[in-house]
Amino acid sequence: MQIDLNGKPHPIAGGTTVSKLIEELGLANQACAVEVNKRLVRKAQHPHHELADGDHVEIVTLVGGG
Q1: Region of residue 37 (phi > 0: left; psi between -120 and 50: alpha; otherwise: beta)
Q2: Can you point out the beta strands (E) in the chain?
Q3: Pick from 2, 23, 20, 19: which is nearest to 11 by CA?
Q4: Which of 10, 18, 60, 64 has an alpha carbon within 20 to 30 A of 35's alpha carbon?
Q5: Does the pTM exceed 0.85?
Q6: What is the tens place of the pLDDT at every residue in 14-64?
Q7: pLDDT(66) > 80
Q8: In this structure, are residues 33 and 46 in contact, taking their beta carbons and an 8 Å threshold?
């Protein structure tokens, strides 16, 4: 399967949830917001929201600086 992740094609396995994708991207310990098909997926739903072929996913993380 393939999704569009932050504007680029990204292959995923069937049954991948938002939580699993975040883990695979190495973002599990970072604060991030996730939108799937222009709808916000709340953090409590990440383990239950299964991604589908062709989904458009946007992940935004916080970046600190000075």
Answers
A1: left
A2: 2-5, 8-11, 32-36, 39-41, 56-61
A3: 2
A4: 64
A5: yes
A6: 999 999 999 999 999 999 999 999 999 999 999 999 999 999 999 999 877
A7: no
A8: no
